[in-house]
User: Fold this.
Amino acid sequence: MVTLSPRLLRLRSAWLLALAVALSACTESIKDPKQAQHTPRWNSLPGWENDRHSEAWPALLQNCKVMPKKDPLWQPICALAANMPAPNDQTARDFFEQHFEPQQILTADGDSTGLLTGYYEPLLKGSFQPDERYKYPLYKTPEQMLIVDLSSLYPELKGKRVRGRLVGNKVIPFYDRAEIDGPEQPLKGQEIIWVDNRDDAFFLQIQGSGRVELPDGKIVGVGYDNQNGHRYVSIGKVLINSGKVERQHMNLFTLKDWLRENDAEAQELLNANPSYVFFNLREDANEGPRGSLNVPLVAERSIAVDRKQIALGSALWVNTRYPDESPLRKLVFAQDTGGAIKGELRGDFFFGNGEEAEYHAGRMKQRAEFWLLRPKP
Assistant:
């Protein structure tokens, strides 16, 4: 048996640590490599040759603001992309084929088909001063909300944060939706803006970001800042389970119609979702909202995923259909997350803003296949 000196032991430990970091970086793009099946040819991806790959370039450049620090394999890719002129479709396609390799994502059971929904950036009417019209507040992150990071005590809870408030010497759950919007108004004084429609304010929290048109016509942006710590509950599912709306008819527009036509029951339904989102004002309303990767989202090229299954920043190929059943086959980037986006084959497609984006996002609920595009070593 060979006995190593303390210095050599330290060097060996440092080398092993460096190796572990390098290996973890190479597998960061997907949490479980068993979920991915190698796809040897690019033309085996449905519709790959027909995509307008140059339209994905802005999303790639946004990704490159963050990914080189997260994953060393992105460093040469982003260095090359930064020094290239804006490519045409063929040049962009060649670039992706040269620097990435596709792998189809499968569940642990071998299933290849999941679910893709949609979201968008709504436009609301609002004011910085409340009055009889503008009376529904959007709040900033409350000063009295405590955010406790448990990872220092329990490493297995890394990334888990508990939100609460202090009453005496006890930390209790933070206010839920019914309390925040109730008559006591516990967050009064922490509004950032007021809007003119209760339901629009609620759905803004579901979308996570939006734009607000002021009385003088100026547009300001509002973006997700934090959340009250309560779990998200789909009020659409509540209506379906109560038998008030049939499942096949449920979408954003039938939900809005029901709230408008049943005003006496509407607030109770809204309160069934205890989750509450807090906002900040965006400096540039023309720039896309920032997702969980902290880069501006790009319409029809950014997607929200379950980060426990697919790492933020991953490049993906999706094969599905628009609500009108026309093909939706695009190169996208996992730049956001969502409270309702859970599972191995689950995504939320960002449609941008405007009436067409609202139309598609409100009806999008399609079966989909996903391919992970790994950076080549």
